[in-house]
Amino acid sequence: MLEFPEHYEFRVHINPVRGGESELNLLFSGAASPHPLHRIGPAIHDYILIHTVVSGYGSFETGNRKYRISSGDTFVIFPNVLFSYEADGKQPWTYLWVAVQGRSAMKLLAAAGIGPDQPVFGGAEPGKLAVIYGSIRSSLDNYASDPLADLESGGWLRVLLGEFGRLNAGSLPPSASLVTEAEKAVEQTARWLQTQYVQPISVEQMAHSLGYHRTHLSKIFRRITGLSPMQYLLQIRMERAKELLHTGLTIEQVAASSGYPDPLYFSRQFRKATGLSPTDYRRSLSGSAGSAQNVKPGSDLQQK
Question: Where is the HTH araC/xylS-type domain (predicted)?
Fold first, then answer.
């Protein structure tokens, strides 16, 4: 713990891993109880700094606006935006914070309803958020391996953003409200099929898992995509099989990796879809001297 003369208590925990160009990188996290009227700024940061107040009061200024902050409120400092904040003169705040960067950091905050136009929000249970902040700090301290410290603290950071999103559910980005229920159902179904295509799939089971009636789901899926769910699944599997036929996998291995445990049935389906058997399709490829070692687990599907 570091000692700071203008604070009753001040703790900061640094992430030992530099995130570089990562999607979301936790830089450091801390907790502080400053003296009355302790002030920071006017200044700017080159990272995002999120504070949650767990007790007391203070004020926060940014974007030519001044906010009165109290327990349960969170205020966010955005990169290269002038800010200042000050503890109350009689009941100074105690707050927790995290600093983050990353190429998708602003996008992920926006998904949680946080942006430069809404840098302050309230309604939190301070104790609940304090547990998450504490888990972030503990993760940074309790691992001998720096990459594991980064991995766990980053996971807790996402949990924290998820909690912020729940608090801001009524003020999510406008684009989120433009998605109709039908579009949402189709998007969920497509994502299900794109990730579960290797498994045995029935429309009835999938609809039940997603919370829709089978007939209704099939109808809106066809209306929006022009395909039934099973036709869409067949398309995904065939595209995946074509990718794998560029490698040195056997036909049986290609079949199993495309969602067909029976290679003979796979061959019939492939011929029906392409007009060629898997073997003939492979022969038709130019420069197809691939090998099974070229397969990248989790490679993206070719989607239409």
Answer: 187-284
